[in-house]
């Protein structure tokens, strides 16, 4: 089965933080993406490509922008039903809203219902892959992976481990965190398009023994990713200092327990010390920027431009439900606004790269997803660049493609997502 998807096709010749973003990106105005058996086999100008694929079924998306599905590198799917909860900072927000909701996931039917609704919501917003925290309950991981297997999406997730500073019903132990994580990893890692991620929530909710147990598990499975939170809010950093008085800094609480490495994903990372920045770069770890969360919970302004220029690997994420949106368009808009507040506005080509190839690279999946190129899995979306009256009147007077795209980044939502293909299969 061969499909030819036609539209304005976005590809990258280079990483748009390493050279001029406009010359790093390429938009083929009448482009084609040829897909066979869920994989991209060719891309280029439609006129020259189509004659080579006379058997292809053509799906003509007109002037819509064809790009890889968005990749959300840090989410909490169990927080779907408490997104947009008012008025708290991180620690109070966790205790007031997050933990009570996460307790519900001991019920497998509840977990499955939320997983299905989360995947439907994010697909409607053009997100084809996420890396999710689950809850303390193994059932919450089974529910998420079962839902992802049914939808055919490439997905990453792990059991959130906590053995202190959380309600009794949400606490495991060093041993049960190790055992449950290992059993889930064995059950799901590498099954279909699924990857297990070792997931200590953050240092305040894990004893040193639990961090060490998960560090040992990671050492046994170094190909797995490990995800956690780092230096999100100043009160949290002071708390970590008091809980780990011997540690050189927040990152050291992970490093000391075998939880720092190239396959490590550190969410937020706003208030980093110079040693932490150097060490993260030295080991090749990835940071994940969660801009709507950082403004919503009042955490601070991530230094995207500075870290990218220094060669740090960074992915982009909603951090649902600390983040206030399911949309990677809204997330790019917030990243742009934070860049503005820091005096370093990001270009549309950089924002779209972060939401696709950049996030894929942060997850170590850049050989599979996040780019339109032969051999890549065909998770694709078509963006309508005139999806609302407000956007259409602005893009109608754009002088070039970037001016036409930027209003959709700043003002677009799920109405802009005209089609989503999962492994080449249209879902809309
Ligand atoms: N730090 C520890 N847990 C969480 C969480 O669920 N959300 C956010 N934003 N930060 C955290
Ligand atoms: Zn988070």
Automatic annotation (TrEMBL):
Binds 1 zinc ion per subunit. Residues 66-425 form the Amidohydrolase-related domain. Keywords: Hydrolase, Metal-binding, Zinc. It comes from the Bacteria. Residues 31-56 form the Aminodeoxyfutalosine deaminase/Imidazolonepropionase-like composite domain. Transmembrane segments: none annotated. InterPro entries: Amidohydro-rel, Guanine_deaminase, Metal-dep_hydrolase_composite, Metal_Hydrolase, Metallo-dep_hydrolases, MQNX/HUTI_composite_N. GO terms for molecular function: guanine deaminase activity. Its EC number is 3.5.4.3. Pathway: Purine metabolism; guanine degradation; xanthine from guanine: step 1/1. Its cofactor is Zn(2+). It catalyses: guanine + H2O + H(+) = xanthine + NH4(+). The keyword Mitochondrion does not apply. The keyword Hydrolase applies. Signal peptide: none annotated. Belongs to the metallo-dependent hydrolases superfamily. ATZ/TRZ family. Catalyzes the hydrolytic deamination of guanine, producing xanthine and ammonia. This is Guanine deaminase. The gene is guaD.
């Amino acid at each position: 089965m061969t499909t030819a998807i036609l539209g304005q096709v976005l590809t990258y010749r280079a990483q748009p933080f390493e050279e001029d973003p406009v010359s790093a990106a390429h938009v083929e105005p009448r482009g084609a993406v040829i897909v066979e058996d869920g994989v991209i086999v060719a891309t280029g100008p439609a006129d020259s490509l189509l004659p080579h694929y006379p058997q292809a079924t053509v799906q003509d998306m007109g002037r819509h922008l064809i790009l890889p599905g968005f990749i959300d590198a840090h989410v909490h799917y169990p927080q779907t039903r408490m997104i947009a909860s008012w008025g708290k900072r991180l620690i109070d927000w966790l205790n007031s809203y997050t933990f009570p909701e996460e307790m519900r996931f001991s019920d497998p039917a509840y977990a499955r219902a939320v997983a299905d609704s989360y995947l439907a919501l994010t697909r409607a917003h053009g997100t084809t892959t996420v890396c999710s925290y689950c809850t303390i309950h193994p059932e919450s991981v089974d529910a998420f992976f079962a839902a992802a297997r049914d939808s055919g999406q490439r997905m990453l997730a792990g059991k959130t481990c906590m053995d202190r500073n959380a309600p009794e019903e949400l606490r495991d132990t060093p041993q049960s965190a190790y055992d449950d994580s290992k059993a889930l990893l064995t059950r799901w890692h590498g099954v279909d398009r699924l990857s297990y991620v070792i997931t200590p929530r953050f240092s305040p909710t894990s004893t040193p023994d639990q961090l060490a147990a998960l560090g040992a598990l990671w050492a046994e499975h170094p190909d797995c990713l490990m995800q956690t939170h780092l230096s999100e809010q100043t009160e949290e950093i002071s708390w970590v200092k008091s809980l780990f008085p011997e540690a050189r800094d927040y990152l050291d609480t992970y490093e000391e327990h075998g939880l720092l490495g190239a396959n490590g994903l550190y969410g937020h990372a706003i208030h980093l010390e110079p040693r932490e920045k150097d060490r993260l770069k030295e080991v090749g770890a990835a940071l994940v920027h969660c801009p709507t969360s950082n403004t919503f919970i009042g955490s601070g302004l991530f230094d995207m431009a500075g870290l990218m220029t220094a060669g740090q690997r960074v992915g982009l994420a909603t951090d649902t439900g600390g983040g206030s949106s399911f949309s990677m368009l809204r997330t790019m808009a917030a990243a742009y606004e934070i860049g503005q507040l820091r005096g370093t506005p990001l270009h549309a080509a950089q924002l779209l790269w972060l939401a696709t190839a950049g996030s894929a690279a942060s997850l170590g999946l850049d050989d599979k997803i996040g780019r339109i190129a032969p051999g890549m899995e065909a998770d694709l979306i078509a963006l309508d660049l005139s999806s609302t009256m407000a956007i259409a009147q602005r893009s109608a007077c754009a002088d070039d493609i970037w001016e036409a795209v930027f209003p959709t980044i700043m003002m677009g939502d799920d109405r802009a997502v005209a089609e989503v293909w999962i492994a080449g299969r249209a879902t809309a």
